[in-house]
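Tokenise the fold.
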Amino acid sequence: MAYGLALAALADPTRRALFERLHRQPHTVGELADWAQIRQPTVSQHLRVLREAHLVTDRREGTRRIYSSNREGLAELRKYLGSFWDDVLAAYAGADAPRQPHAAPRTAKTRRRRR
């Protein structure tokens, strides 16, 4: 249930904003802290949650860590959400199926007279 961790991680608006920023391009903790106007330890905590959910990765570059989004980490979440989309499409296809024509209601003119 890896998608559960991803959903929980992205539920926080600050964390989601950091993830969206990293999805565009890699950043250091300091760059993210300056951009989000929050302290570096707070950014580090958010990144830890995102990393545990497999949504971001990091690499060492000297004494700095460069964070970027982990596109493979979204695969489980996408698969989970896609299953709902498949259900919607199947329901839509079923609702659009051709229907059998109904017989016209019998009126006084179309009724047979008994003899």
About this structure: The mean pLDDT is 85. The first strand starts at residue 27 and ends at 28. The beta strands are 27-28, 56-61, 64-69. Residues 3 and 77 are 5 Å apart (CA to CA).
